[in-house]
Amino acid sequence: MITAKERVQLLQLLDGKTTAELRTIFSIMKRKYEEVSAAENTVTSRQFRIGDRVVFTSRKHEKVTGRVERVNRKTLSLHRCSDGHKWRVPFSRATLLDKPDNLQSY
Protein backbone atom coordinates (compact mmCIF):
# COMPACT_ATOMS: atom_id res chain seq x y z
CA MET A 1 0.00 0.00 0.00
CA ILE A 2 1.29 3.46 -0.84
CA THR A 3 1.46 5.88 2.06
CA ALA A 4 0.26 9.46 1.81
CA LYS A 5 3.88 10.65 1.88
CA GLU A 6 4.84 8.32 -0.98
CA ARG A 7 1.82 9.50 -2.97
CA VAL A 8 2.91 13.13 -2.58
CA GLN A 9 6.47 12.22 -3.62
CA LEU A 10 5.16 10.40 -6.68
CA LEU A 11 3.01 13.35 -7.72
CA GLN A 12 5.98 15.71 -7.26
CA LEU A 13 8.10 13.42 -9.41
CA LEU A 14 5.48 13.42 -12.18
CA ASP A 15 4.83 17.16 -12.00
CA GLY A 16 6.22 18.99 -15.02
CA LYS A 17 6.76 15.87 -17.16
CA THR A 18 5.88 16.06 -20.84
CA THR A 19 3.24 13.86 -22.44
CA ALA A 20 5.94 11.69 -24.00
CA GLU A 21 7.70 11.23 -20.65
CA LEU A 22 4.42 10.38 -18.92
CA ARG A 23 3.60 7.88 -21.68
CA THR A 24 6.96 6.17 -21.12
CA ILE A 25 6.42 6.06 -17.34
CA PHE A 26 2.91 4.66 -17.87
CA SER A 27 4.25 1.97 -20.20
CA ILE A 28 6.85 0.89 -17.63
CA MET A 29 4.26 0.82 -14.83
CA LYS A 30 1.79 -1.14 -16.96
CA ARG A 31 4.40 -3.81 -17.77
CA LYS A 32 5.33 -4.11 -14.10
CA TYR A 33 1.65 -4.36 -13.09
CA GLU A 34 1.02 -7.13 -15.64
CA GLU A 35 4.12 -8.99 -14.48
CA VAL A 36 3.11 -8.87 -10.80
CA SER A 37 -0.53 -9.65 -11.59
CA ALA A 38 0.40 -12.70 -13.68
CA ALA A 39 2.67 -13.99 -10.91
CA GLU A 40 -0.09 -13.59 -8.31
CA ASN A 41 -2.67 -15.33 -10.53
CA THR A 42 -0.31 -18.23 -11.25
CA VAL A 43 0.35 -18.84 -7.57
CA THR A 44 -3.30 -18.47 -6.60
CA SER A 45 -4.71 -20.67 -9.36
CA ARG A 46 -2.68 -23.65 -8.15
CA GLN A 47 -4.56 -23.86 -4.87
CA PHE A 48 -7.90 -24.62 -6.60
CA ARG A 49 -8.93 -27.92 -8.19
CA ILE A 50 -12.11 -29.19 -9.82
CA GLY A 51 -14.58 -30.26 -7.12
CA ASP A 52 -13.23 -27.94 -4.42
CA ARG A 53 -15.84 -26.10 -2.39
CA VAL A 54 -15.25 -22.34 -2.22
CA VAL A 55 -16.97 -19.26 -0.82
CA PHE A 56 -17.01 -15.69 -2.13
CA THR A 57 -18.96 -12.48 -1.55
CA SER A 58 -21.34 -11.46 -4.34
CA ARG A 59 -21.90 -7.92 -5.60
CA LYS A 60 -24.90 -7.78 -3.26
CA HIS A 61 -22.52 -8.52 -0.34
CA GLU A 62 -23.97 -12.00 0.20
CA LYS A 63 -21.81 -15.04 0.98
CA VAL A 64 -22.14 -17.63 -1.82
CA THR A 65 -20.67 -21.14 -1.74
CA GLY A 66 -20.15 -23.35 -4.76
CA ARG A 67 -18.13 -26.15 -6.32
CA VAL A 68 -15.29 -25.52 -8.76
CA GLU A 69 -16.42 -26.80 -12.14
CA ARG A 70 -13.44 -25.44 -14.08
CA VAL A 71 -10.18 -23.59 -13.32
CA ASN A 72 -9.81 -20.91 -16.01
CA ARG A 73 -6.81 -18.69 -16.68
CA LYS A 74 -7.98 -15.89 -14.37
CA THR A 75 -11.22 -17.15 -12.84
CA LEU A 76 -13.02 -20.15 -11.37
CA SER A 77 -16.23 -21.43 -12.96
CA LEU A 78 -18.52 -22.46 -10.11
CA HIS A 79 -21.67 -24.59 -10.13
CA ARG A 80 -23.98 -25.98 -7.45
CA CYS A 81 -23.90 -22.56 -5.82
CA SER A 82 -25.90 -21.82 -2.69
CA ASP A 83 -27.91 -19.13 -4.51
CA GLY A 84 -28.82 -21.45 -7.42
CA HIS A 85 -26.73 -19.61 -10.01
CA LYS A 86 -23.50 -20.43 -11.84
CA TRP A 87 -20.66 -17.97 -11.28
CA ARG A 88 -17.29 -17.07 -12.77
CA VAL A 89 -15.19 -15.68 -9.91
CA PRO A 90 -11.63 -14.24 -9.89
CA PHE A 91 -9.16 -16.29 -7.81
CA SER A 92 -8.61 -13.32 -5.51
CA ARG A 93 -12.29 -13.27 -4.46
CA ALA A 94 -12.61 -17.01 -3.76
CA THR A 95 -11.71 -18.72 -0.48
CA LEU A 96 -11.18 -22.46 -0.35
CA LEU A 97 -13.51 -24.19 2.14
CA ASP A 98 -12.67 -27.85 1.59
CA LYS A 99 -11.38 -30.34 -0.93
CA PRO A 100 -13.46 -33.37 -1.95
CA ASP A 101 -12.41 -36.82 -0.77
CA ASN A 102 -13.62 -38.45 -3.97
CA LEU A 103 -13.87 -36.46 -7.21
CA GLN A 104 -16.16 -39.07 -8.78
CA SER A 105 -19.01 -38.05 -6.48
CA TYR A 106 -19.12 -34.61 -8.13
Give a quick account of the main beta sheet: strands, pairing sense, barrel closure. 5 strands, antiparallel
Determine and state the CATH class of the largest domain. Mainly Beta
Number of domains: 2
The backbone outline, from C-alpha atoms, is elongated
In helices, the fraction of residues equals: 25-40%
Low-confidence stretches: none
Radius of gyration (CA) equals 20 Å
CATH topology label of the largest domain: SH3 type barrels
- According to DSSP, the number of beta strands is 5
CATH architecture of the largest domain: Roll
Number of helices: 2
Distance between the termini: 40 Å
Give the secondary structure arrangement, pairings included.
Blueprint: H1 4-14, H2 19-45, E1 53-57, E2 63-71, E3 75-79, E4 87-90, E5 95-98
Q: What report would you give on this structure?
A:
The chain has 106 residues and is of the alpha+beta class. It has 2 domains: 4-45; 53-105, SH3 type barrels. The protein is 36% helix and 25% strand. The chain has 2 helices and 5 strands. The chain has helices spanning 4-14, 19-45; strands at 53-57, 63-71, 75-79, 87-90, 95-98. It has a 5-stranded antiparallel β-sheet with strand order 4-3-2-1-5, with no helix packed on it. The protein is elongated, with a radius of gyration of 20 Å. The N and C termini lie far apart (40 Å). The mean pLDDT is 89.
